[in-house]
Specification:
By secondary structure, the chain is α+β, with helices and mostly antiparallel strands. It folds into three domains: about 425 residues, Multidrug efflux transporter AcrB transmembrane domain (Multidrug efflux transporter AcrB transmembrane fold); about 170 residues, no CATH class; about 140 residues, no CATH class. It is about 60% helix and about 5% strand. The radius of gyration is 35 Å and the shape is elongated.
Length: about 900
């Protein structure tokens, strides 16, 4: 192994010009794939195969309206002290007028009543009263007429009208525009809803395919509403998709420059040399070019998770650069004065190269453990991160050393001295701090290990309390902090308000697309089917997660659609036959059939198949709840609105219970499958937790096997691999305990933290163990070996840890909370791994040497370690496989 490492080091430092040429060509070829990288932001990409997902797909494919009749809904919620006042009603109507006059908005409208809300209900009621008294011919009222009708009312007339229209005897459809807190008949309300309906040519499944013109119109509607005196909360699919996409771009625009600035500052502190700083930055850009180019060629779309990968690779690149450069500096300062730049780099690569290969392999193992996850974006995260780690190895193991040799050699040939002292060496303050772990290992190693284990017990308890979270709002940005207002144009974030709007709408209104669903198949035309639905409706109404508005629980099924359609038919039946339209005649006929089929309990108990067929004929909207094919009813659908602040797990549990109750009341005659985003997302949450556990187990086992074999192949006991891994395992418990204390859940990003902790953290332990084993053989004394290891390699580790933590710390500037959490928790991961390697691992290495390792390395007296001697040039280079 040592001969192979030596030959590789000699090769990389001998043919530097050829290596530079080849690496640059490869970089150009791989980087060409960057142009093919696409962006993907929809939450559906996280969904996994499950009965709920299959049921949801079935619903989306079959419970659809006719082509061309799909709609996009925009909810506009007007808020104030009393939106039922004359001023607020007129403001709502005025806003509608402005919206209708904006051509770019109105061209997206459906043909029939595209804008309608609570103010229109009251205005139309006022107009109806006036027309009755004047015996005028009623026609579709214009907004101008509606405004005039409201203007003509005095306070008492307006309040009386509101009590009649929105009271118990008023219209349920009218009360549907009021918030959940509204009591029927009240003349005051804190908010009111207006619905805007836009035309969709097809049903949109992928947010990225949502028509751009509809999104633009929704953004314009929000701008118009924000210019009003009242507060407005809006929700629309285009608004949601726009802010999710915008949050990705804005987070990158803020974090990217901050990360680059930090890299320059960090490298300045560590290197204190302009040329080395430039080389480090060039290497980082090379790694990013390789990674994004790979994504393009591999067809991996850029998503929310992958936003953290550039920061991750920046931190790792700095890590690799520091270890190579600092080892090279050690060789030049402490080695033979006759060593040239080329020979010093050869020795440095021979010494640090094997450790970097091991670090790369173990980090890749940690990342690739995510391939066991059924969640696609997590698999992409693992693959891309693993490739990026190998890219860092090639760039900083071949290209950057070759560039440094050529440039330093060129400068020294002209009399410019390029010798620099390695960070953390030379008796600096950092040397003293790093030696504290050695002091503790010498005096009370058992106590150190016991304390670390006790801390891990507490961390393990906290780990069992960490929640799992997956929600669409995880990918929505909060309102940017005030300091971002002073950022230059390209970095300044846009406006974000949909998170706050969603919170308000979800608590007070039945939010669009926020429903739980049950797909019902089997004997759906049984004469008792509608009665079973009625029994289920009663049980659903008692659930805490169900949204309860002014009209009661929001439960929709074929039965409720029939009831509303039959009520319309009853009204149409009051019209003389010769005056009815074709639709009115059809509605009246349906009402007659419904009445004839109804039993004593008021629910139809016969002619069920015929009722389904006639319902679809007279009310096309029923196709959302009844699916027929080849003249037969194949399935029906139950839907109930849920509160916006209910936990996904609670909604999913209630949904599953509803599905079970349907099968229960039907005695197995119906097959019910829970569906809806909440059930699907709940499955994602469970998959995330499985990913955390499986990723940790697989990573620990794989790394243990790899290290045991690697150390064994290089002539060391396999037990050294176990000792190297234990501090990292302890760090895992510490980080999970910290997540509990900081109330950070497992989500799509933090769910990778266990495998990431092992994959990144093992690097610190490998560097310490490998250097210690080498120094132990070189110096023949456990204390000298430990001291040299911790002050030499530990200095590089300290610089590496500080820069990596700082790199991830820049994620705290991201406007996405999920990225902020990932930055915090990953930064803590690096800190814990570093502390475990320099404080706990030395004590474990002492005990390993005493009981399991090679013998003869302890001095006769442990009171004072022998004086350290400076190794001779014959001891250089450090060429064994496990050197740092």
């Amino acid at each position: 192994m040592s001969n192979l490492v030596n030959r590789l080091g000699d090769f990389l430092t001998t043919y530097t010009k050829s290596i530079i040429l080849v690496m640059l060509v490869v970089t150009v070829l791989i980087g060409a794939g960057m142009a093919q990288v696409e962006q993907q932001s929809q939450t559906e990409q996280f969904e996994t195969d499950s009965p709920a997902a299959d049921a949801q797909s079935y619903i989306e494919e079959n419970f659809t309206l006719d082509e061309g009749s799909n709609e996009a809904i925009v909810q506009v919620i007007q808020r104030g002290d009393n939106v039922l006042s004359k001023e607020s009603l007129l403001e709502s109507l005025s806003l509608q007028q402005e919206i209708r006059e904006r051509e770019s908005i109105s061209t997206t409208f459906v043909d029939d009543r595209p804008v309608f809300g609570y103010a229109n209900v009251i205005a139309n009621a006022a107009l109806s009263s006036q027309q009755e008294s004047s015996d005028a011919n009623a026609g579709p009222p214009t907004l101008t007429e509606q405004q005039a009708a409201i203007e003509s009312l005095d306070k008492s007339q307006l309040e009386g009208l509101i009590q009649r229209v929105l009271g118990e005897d008023g219209s349920e459809r009218a009360r549907a525009f009021m918030p959940a807190s509204y009591q029927p008949g009240n003349t005051t309300a804190e908010s009111g809803s207006t619905v805007i309906r836009q035309k969709l040519d097809i049903e949109v499944q992928d947010p990225n395919s949502f028509p751009e013109e509809l999104t633009t119109a929704q953004l314009e509607i929000r701008d118009l509403a924000q210019d009003r005196d009242s507060d407005f909360s809006l929700f629309g699919f285009g608004l949601l998709n726009e802010e999710i996409n915008q949050s990705l771009g804005d987070s990158g625009a803020i974090v990217g420059p901050f990360a680059l600035l930090f890299v320059v500052v960090a490298l300045t502190v560590a290197y204190r040399d302009l040329l080395d700083i430039i080389l480090g930055v060039v290497g980082i850009f090379g790694v990013l070019v390789w990674t994004f180019g790979f994504m393009g060629w591999a067809g991996v779309a850029f998503n929310q998770l992958l936003l953290s990968v550039p920061i991750l690779l920046i931190g790792l690149s700095i890590d690799y650069a520091i270890h190579v450069f600092m080892r090279h500096r050690e060789q030049r300062i402490e080695g033979d004065d006759s060593l040239s730049v080329r020979n010093s780099m050869s020795f440095a690569l021979a010494g640090v190269g094997a450790a970097l290969v091991w670090v790369t392999a173990t980090a890749a193992i940690g990342f690739l453990a995510n391939l066991t996850s059924p969640i696609g974006p997590l698999q992409d995260f693992g693959i891309v991160s693993a490739f990026g780690v190998f890219a860092a190895l090639f760039i900083f193991g071949a290209l950057i050393p070759a560039l440094k040799i050529e440039i330093d050699g060129f400068l020294e040939a002209r009399g410019i001295d390029r010798k620099k002292r390695a960070f953390g060496t030379g008796g600096s303050i950092f040397s003293g701090l790093l030696s504290s772990g050695v002091t503790a290992a010498r005096r009370f190693p058992v106590v150190v290990i016991v304390l670390a284990l006790l801390l891990s017990v507490g961390g393990a308890y906290g780990a069992s309390q960490v929640n799992t979270s997956f929600d669409e709002t995880d990918f929505l940005a909060d309102s940017p902090p005030e300091w971002t207002e002073s950022l230059p144009g390209p970095m300044a974030p846009g406006t974000y308000q949909i998170t706050d709007d969603l919170d308000y709408i979800g608590q007070n209104y039945q939010q669009e697309d926020n429903e739980a669903e049950v797909l019902i198949r089997g004997d759906v035309t049984n004469e008792k089917t509608l009665q079973w639905l009625d029994e289920t409706r009663s049980s659903v109404s008692d659930l805490e997660t169900v949204f309860v508005g002014p009209n009661g629980p929001a439960v929709t099924s074929p039965l409720s659609v029939m009831e509303r359609t039959a009520a319309q038919g009853a009204q149409a039946a009051q019209i003389p036959e010769d005056e009815r339209t074709q639709r009115q005649a059809a509605l009246a006929g349906f009402a007659t059939l419904y009445q004839q089929s109804t039993g004593e309990d008021g629910v139809p108990n016969q002619n069920v198949e015929k009722l389904f067929t006639r319902l679809l004929e007279v009310n096309p909207q029923a196709a959302q709840f009844v699916y027929q094919a080849d003249g037969e009813t194949k399935a029906i659908r139950l839907q109930f609105g849920v509160t916006g602040d209910a936990r996904i797990g609670d909604i999913a549990e209630d949904n599953r219970n509803v599905a079970s109750s349907i099968e229960g009341v039907s005695s197995g005659g119906l097959s019910s499958t829970p569906a809806g985003d909440q059930v699907v997302f709940d499955k994602v949450q469970k998959d995330l937790l499985d990913t955390v556990i499986q990723g940790l187990v697989i990573t620990l086992v794989a790394v243990f096997i790899f290290l045991s074999i690697a150390y064994r192949l290089t002539g060391n006991p396999a037990s050294l691999g176990v000792v190297t891994l234990v501090p990292v395992a302890l760090a895992v418990t510490w980080i999970l305990g910290s997540m509990w204390l900081l109330d950070i859940p497992f989500n799509t990003l933090t769910g990778t933290i266990t495998s990431l902790t092992v994959g990144l953290g093992i690097a610190y332990s490998i560097h310490i163990s490998s250097r210690y084993e080498l120094e132990l053989r070189r110096q023949g004394d456990v204390w000298k070996a430990l001291d040299t290891t911790v002050t030499g390699t530990g200095g590089a580790l300290l610089g590496s840890a500080a820069t990596t933590v700082g790199g991830f710390g820049t994620l705290a500037f991201a406007i996405l909370p999920i990225l902020q959490q990932f930055g915090i928790i990953t930064g803590l991961t690096i800190i814990y791994a570093f502390l475990a390697s320099v404080l706990v691992l030395p004590s474990m290495l002492v005990l390993w040497t005493r009981y399991l390792g090679p013998s003869g390395y302890f001095p006769d007296s442990d009171v004072e370690p022998p004086e350290e001697s400076t190794p001779s040039s014959e001891d250089q280079p450090a060429t064994d496989a496990q050197t740092e």
